[in-house]
Amino acid sequence: MNTKITAKQIDALLPQTQCTECGFKGCLPYAEAMANGDAVHNLCKPGGVAVLNSLKELLNVQVDLQPAKVKELPAVARIDLDKCIGCALCIKACPTDAIIGAPKQQHIVYEKDCTGCKLCLDPCPVDCIAIETISNTIPTEKEDKKRAKEVRILFESRNERLAKRDTERLKEKKAAKLKLQVGKNAMEAEVNHSQKTDWRSKLSPELQAKMEKARANARAKYDR
Fold this sequence. Notes:
By secondary structure, the protein is mainly alpha-helical. Among the domains are: 53 residues, Electron transport complex subunit B, putative Fe-S cluster (3-methyladenine DNA Glycosylase II, Chain A, domain 3), CATH 1.10.15.40; 59 residues, Alpha-Beta Plaits. The strands form two sheets. Strands 1-4 form a two-stranded antiparallel ribbon. The chain has a two-stranded antiparallel sheet with strand order 2-3. A hairpin with a 7-residue loop joins strand 2 and strand 3.
């Protein structure tokens, strides 16, 4: 394998479905594994023969391998609204934010952004999602590359959104922790102050009067 080939170059040839059928957590991790020599080039199931041949040419691989599976017809996920319970688990699983909805509300699939990756199937507890073919024609290589660019933008946008959300949640968590600590410190200070001053209230009135007189005499002497 040519060591000068980068993961970015390899990733550019992958379909960006992020389906994980290759055994890696998305297209880029698979590309990184190939770039490091830790994965063979025939694991991309959605890519089929076309992607296999492109990778073989880029990587200058002489070994002939069979594709993981024959490229399938374009398909998307569709939700049976009568069965959907609004659990939102499919939304969390979708790598392109193609599923729209809120907790306890019916969800729908924005088919233009759906890659048919099937990642939403397993999380669904009521089996209300199905993958359905939307065309009887296999896309051309040019169409696949165009689609891959579009999907990569969706995937990266989702990752940016999640990273921003996690950062904001971390800030909120730290702020809440700091507020709690400030309150705890104030309470401890108040308790300590009470413990230091409480002993005076236990003295007899006569002794308190003598102490106050002694403090007054000391102040008067100091002020001269």
